[in-house]
Every structure is written in structure tokens, then in C-alpha cells.
Design a protein that fits this description.
By secondary structure, the chain is an alpha/beta fold. The protein folds into 3 domains: 7-146, Response regulator (Rossmann fold, 3-Layer(aba) Sandwich); 170-405, pyruvate-formate lyase- activating enzyme (Alpha-Beta Horseshoe), CATH 3.80.30.20; 411-470, Nucleic acid-binding proteins (OB fold (Dihydrolipoamide Acetyltransferase, E2P)). 33% of the residues lie in helices and 20% in strands. The strands form 6 sheets. A 5-stranded parallel sheet has the order 2-1-3-4-5, sandwiched between helices. A 5-stranded mixed beta barrel has the order 16-17-18-20-19. A 3-stranded parallel sheet has the order 6-9-12, covered by helices on one side. β14 (328-335), α13 and β15 (359-364) form a beta-alpha-beta unit. α13 (342-355) packs parallel to α14. The structure holds iron/sulfur cluster (SF4).
Length: 471
């Protein structure tokens, strides 16, 4: 294996090396505006995969307005992308880190040797942060922490809060990708792989940027929100001098401090979900849980490879509501799963009544390519699937209407999504997520704008929506 030295070290030690001349030209481009950009020095060692990692990091740095310094002295911090493949490469990496600390002082380490932080810290305890190979987000988070990016609104093509496709007042906050579960009907793990959580400091940094940009509601999403951080051993990372742990509860606490609505979606019913209910009762995060139970019959759940103790789930929901009476549960269910009997289906209906599931999405089972359940016997005829879908939708409507009727007379916070041509204000309550849940309709009021949050007295309810007036 060849040890390659990228331009900072190359310029210093290997001036005639043909390595990466274009990249150094691009990377060293002059500042585009009057803002004094922060400069990062890059030392890149190792194989072509590590080189690609360095290129990606440099691309990201340039896109965020950082400059790349050709020497240690001009750099505000130095990033060392290490190699750990052979003993000689590890020694070279440790040597490069030592040199960067001596010459500059502010050093962030990434790459293969970064997977062994103890080895690095034993020799170089002054290193600011260490991340493993291909952990671009962690690297960027460490750089943001050491050198906060300078945002120039008149020059930068990308706003500080990123490019969003949602209205200005709410935003989806994606905390992880992939899923470790293997539900037999689902091909998400096949398509997106196992759980990969974002570091907590990257999530918090994004959330703070969004709030600064005017977002009033954060919708936390992933494939499996309550598993957040399991793959990275719930690692702690720092942002603006504060430590954040990559764990569902800790994330809820941290987001709850931002002073905006925080709504939790796609929560798999692990036991530790109980911990966030008191935060909802205290008003730190919205009293809203989107838990896709998928079914309620233990037989069907077993074949779905989902938690099968549904009686326990109904009991848990009762306990949650005893702690947080305002809790709204949204769930989705699949009807017509292979082998689902009429008895199984009735258990599902009983569960929806008993657990008083406020909002329900009902899906007709489909034999998706690559899903395990495609091979299952006892596939259900389409007309039975359609019939069960209609019956469950009727139950969903009935339960929703009952739950909403209990809100009449309440004074609640709403957020404005839209004002129609007649001036009617179309808003959502704390119990309604955008796109999937209902609305509250309020008669026209002068001066009210999209994104405003205010108190409303609920005066009437239909199957899915509320009607009220501003207090
Ligand atoms: S249904 Fe959800 S929890 Fe199950 S494998 Fe798919 S993404 Fe994961």
C-alpha cells in the first residue's frame, strides 16, 4: 500500500509529487466575499478510498464557505485523515498528527485510525476530536464545533438552514437512516441497510439552524426513531461547549430546549419510549407519538416479526395517558397480511377501540418484491383485503370523531399552515402533524400569518377536524 500525502504535507515535503494538483487549485480558491472565511489545512494519508473521503470533506468544506490552507501557519485548524491498515501506516498517521499539533495546535483526526481513538489519545491527548472512516457528518460537526462556519447570506448559494421543500414554519429533522429490524413485509433494510445514526451534535446543530431560520415546528423522522444512537453506542458529542448523547430520550430533552414544537414520528414501541412521556406532560415536546403498530393480533405480529405482546401495548398506552392525558397516538396498520383470519382482524379492531388510537393510517397488504412475506402461504384475496380496509377505516373514523369531541371547550395552541381565499385560517393543533392528520379551521382574523402560533378555543369537531376561534 502506498502512503499518499495530500497537498498540505505534499507542499511541505514532496513538492514534485504529482498528487492532486487540481484539487489543491480548486480547494485553495480565494474568498468570494468580504466575510473572512475560516481556513482548514488537510493532511491526507492512505489508500484511494481515504483520498475520496478527503475529496468529499473538502467539497463539503468549500460548499460551506471554508477555505483550504496550503500550510499549517495559515490554517485555523488542521484535519488529519489517517490510515490504519499496516503498522507502518499507523506510525505514519500518529507522526502526522504529532506534526500538525506541533505546527498548528488545533487538530481534528478522521480516517481508519480514527476507529481506534484510544490509540490516538494515548499519544496525542491534545487532539480536538476523532472520528472514524467515512464519517463525513461527524467530521463536519467537529469542524463546526472548532470553527463555526461563517454564513454570508448575500453570497452563499445554500441558506444556513439548508434547502428545504417544506413551508418555512416547519421542517423534518432526519436523525438516522436504515433500520435494524426485519419486519417480514418491509424492504427498507434491503434498500437502505442497517441503522446509521447521525451524531447528536450534527442533529442539534441542524435543529438550531432551522430554528434560527424561523422554523416553529420540528418533525423528528427516521425509519426507527426510538432506536436512535444504538449503532454508535449512544455516543456523546459536543456542540458549542455542550455535550449531547445520541439517545432518543436525550435528543427529546435537547430539542425540547429549543422553544419550538417538537413532534416524534416513527417510534418503534421499545420499552424506553416510556421515558419521554413525562417530557410531553411537562410541555417540553408535543404530546404526540406516531407509533406504527401495524397490527394487534399476536399471530399476525409474530409473522410480521414485530413485538407480539399487544395486550401490554394497550396497557402501556393507558399508563402513558395517566401521565400525559393530552397524549395523541397516531398509528398505521396493515390489513390483509398473509394468514390474517377474521378473528385476527377483530382483535385489531378491538385494540383500536381499547387503546383509543386517535389517528390511524390503514394500508392494504401488498406483496412487495424482496419482502419475506411474499413467500408466505395463505395470501388473502383482494376483495377480503378491500372489505377489511373499509371496515377498519370506519372504526378509525368513529374513534377519531369520539376523541376529537372531547376537545370541544378546550383552549389549545395551534400553528397556522394556510389562509384560504376567504381568509379562513387553516391551522393545526398540537395533536395534528402536517399532511397526515386533521386541521382546525378558524374564522378570518386580520394580521394573522402563516406560521403564527396562538391559542384557540375549540368550539366544534367533525370526524377528523376541529373548529375554533382565537382567544
Ligand atoms: S417496518 Fe419499520 S421497523 Fe420494520 S423493518 Fe421496516 S423500517 Fe424497520
Amino acid at each position: 500500500m502506498v502512503i499518499k500525502l495530500a497537498f498540505l504535507r505534499r507542499i511541505k515535503n514532496h513538492a514534485n509529487h504529482q498528487y492532486l494538483p487540481e484539487m489543491s487549485q480548486n480547494a485553495k480558491s480565494a474568498p468570494m466575499n468580504n466575510v473572512v472565511s475560516k481556513k482548514i489545512g488537510i493532511v491526507s494519508l492512505g489508500c484511494p478510498k481515504a483520498l475520496v473521503d478527503s475529496e468529499r470533506i473538502i467539497t463539503k468544506l468549500r460548499a460551506e464557505g471554508y477555505e483550504i490552507s496550503p500550510d499549517y501557519q495559515g490554517a485555523d485548524a488542521v484535519l488529519v485523515n489517517t490510515c490504519g491498515f499496516l503498522d507502518s501506516a499507523r506510525a505514519e498517521s500518529l507522526d502526522a498528527i504529532g506534526e500538525a499539533i506541533r505546527e498548528n495546535g488545533k487538530v481534528i483526526v478522521t480516517g481508519c485510525l480514527g476507529a481506534e481513538p484510544d490509540v490516538i489519545m494515548a499519544e496525542h491527548p491534545k487532539v480536538l476530536a476523532i472520528t472514524g472512516p467515512q464519517q463525513y457528518e461527524n467530521v463536519m460537526a467537529a469542524i463546526h464545533d472548532a470553527l463555526p462556519p461563517q454564513h454570508e447570506p448575500f453570497q452563499d448559494l445554500v441558506p444556513e438552514s439548508g434547502i428545504r421543500l417544506t413551508p418555512r414554519h416547519y421542517a423534518y429533522l432526519k436523525i438516522s437512516e436504515g433500520c435494524d429490524n426485519r419486519c417480514s413485509f418491509c424492504i427498507i433494510p434491503f434498500l437502505r441497510g442497517d441503522l446509521v445514526s447521525r451524531p447528536a451534535n450534527a442533529v442539534i446543530a441542524e435543529a438550531q439552524n432551522l430554528v434560527r431560520a424561523g422554523v416553529k415546528e420540528l418533525l423528528v423522522v427516521s425509519q426507527d426513531t426510538s432506536a436512535y444512537g444504538r449503532d454508535i453506542k449512544y455516543a456523546t458529542s459536543s456542540f458549542k461547549g455542550q455535550e449531547y448523547r445520541a439517545k432518543f430520550y436525550d435528543l427529546a430533552v435537547a430539542l425540547g430546549e429549543l422553544g419550538v414544537w417538537v413532534r416524534m414520528h416513527y417510534v418503534y414501541p421499545y420499552p424506553h419510549v416510556d421515558e419521554v412521556i413525562p417530557l410531553m406532560a411537562e410541555g417540553k415536546i408535543l404530546p404526540y407519538l406516531d407509533i406504527p403498530f401495524q397490527h394487534a393480533s399476536p399471530n399476525v405480529l409474530k409473522r410480521m416479526v414485530r413485538p407480539a405482546n399487544i395486550e401490554k401495548q394497550a396497557e402501556r398506552i393507558k399508563k402513558w395517558r395517566a401521565i400525559c392525558p393530552d397524549l395523541c397516538i397516531r398509528s398505521s396498520f396493515i390489513v390483509g397480511f398473509p394468514g390474517e383470519t377474521e378473528e385476527d382482524f377483530k382483535q385489531l379492531i378491538d385494540f383500536v377501540y381499547e387503546a383509543k388510537i386517535d389517528r390511524i393510517g390503514v394500508f392494504k397488504y401488498e406483496n412487495v418484491v424482496h419482502a419475506k412475506s411474499r413467500e408466505f402461504e395463505d395470501q388473502i384475496p383482494q376483495e377480503i383485503i378491500d372489505d377489511r380496509w373499509n371496515r377498519l377505516m370506519e372504526v378509525a373514523q368513529e374513534v377519531s370523531a369520539e376523541r376529537l369531541a372531547t376537545k370541544i371547550g378546550r383552549e389549545i395552541d395551534v400553528i397556522v399552515d394556510e389562509i384560504d381565499e376567504e381568509g379562513t385560517i387553516i391551522a393545526r393543533t398540537i395533536w395534528d402533524a402536517p399532511e397526515v392528520d386533521g386541521n382546525i379551521f378558524i374564522d378570518p382574523i386580520d394580521g394573522v400569518k402563516v406560521g403564527d402560533v396562538f391559542k384557540v378555543k375549540v368550539e366544534d369537531a367533525s370526524e377528523y377536524d376541529l373548529f375554533g376561534s382565537k382567544i
